[in-house]
Design brief:
The protein has about 240 residues and is mostly helical. The protein folds into 2 domains: about 100 residues; about 130 residues, Up-down Bundle (Four Helix Bundle (Hemerythrin (Met), subunit A)), CATH 1.20.120. The protein is built from 11 helices and 3 strands. The longest helix is centred in the middle third of the chain and has 22 residues.
């Protein structure tokens, strides 16, 4: 877990020095599996987290004695260690921060999240997964997700314009495959796409190769070569879908 996220999750800036120290020791323990810690390490944790260096003697006194006591002095060591009940209490309150199966770490590495996130939750997740995949060199994953995002935005555009029946299958219940949707979109008089429609087959094929070609693996250049046109497409389809004005 990133320290910056932990600082925010625990509201560390509002805490007293001794409380900050206790919480940072808990973070250190979770990240390193070390239950003993030196005052020098505690001082470093505080400084690296943007706080002033403490008077270590005075801080140690607070952490190991009196009403703020949370640590015991380790035998045969200059380090201190958590009182088991204190550690268990912190684990109960903050331990789930290390079990987060929802948060996607991303920061507009490929798609501008400030511009395109905030309209629909499922679109935000797709965009963040694209960015996370790209930033972690998972280019096949990014290509497949980009293809899916493209397909979703096309369908949303048809729905917003009230013409989604034009891209439904023979049963009238499901939508055509992406190739069929793209073929319709390129010449649809109601959708009225700009010249970016000439790139639609490229967006589709890059994702198709990553999803279906046994020997193909996407590289960074494959994504970079289409990212400018892909961004133009996003802006146009977001507008057609009524997501931005």
């Amino acid at each position: 877990m990133k320290i910056i996220d932990y600082i925010e999750a625990t509201d560390l800036k509002s805490k007293t020095e001794s409380e900050r120290s206790k919480l940072l020791c808990f973070y250190h323990s979770k990240e390193t599996n070390e239950m003993q810690i030196s005052m020098a390490t505690i001082s470093d944790l505080l400084v690296q987290s943007g706080f002033n260096a403490p008077n270590t003697s005075r801080l140690k006194e607070k952490l190991t004695k009196g009403k703020e006591k949370a640590f015991l002095k380790s035998k045969n060591s200059t380090k201190i260690e958590f009182i088991p009940a204190v550690f268990q209490s912190l684990e109960k309150r903050y331990g789930n921060l290390w079990n987060d199966d929802i948060t996607i770490e991303s920061n507009s590495e490929l798609i501008d999240e400030k511009k395109f996130c905030g309209q629909r939750g499922y679109l935000d997740k797709l965009i963040k997964q694209v960015n996370h995949s790209y930033s972690n060199n998972c280019y096949d994953a990014a290509a497949v997700l980009m293809r899916r995002l493209f397909e979703v935005l096309l369908v949303l555009s048809y729905q917003n314009l009230g013409i989604d029946n034009e891209i439904k299958d023979a049963s009238g219940n499901g939508y055509l495959m992406l190739e069929g949707i793209v073929n319709n979109a390129k010449n649809n008089p109601t959708l009225k796409l700009s010249r970016i429609k000439k790139e639609f087959d490229t967006f589709r094929m890059v994702g198709n190769f990553s999803a279906h070609n046994i020997t193909y693996t996407a590289g960074k250049k494959d994504i970079d070569d289409i990212k400018l046109n892909y961004r133009v497409m996003l802006e146009e389809l977001y507008s057609k879908a009524g997501l931005i004005t």
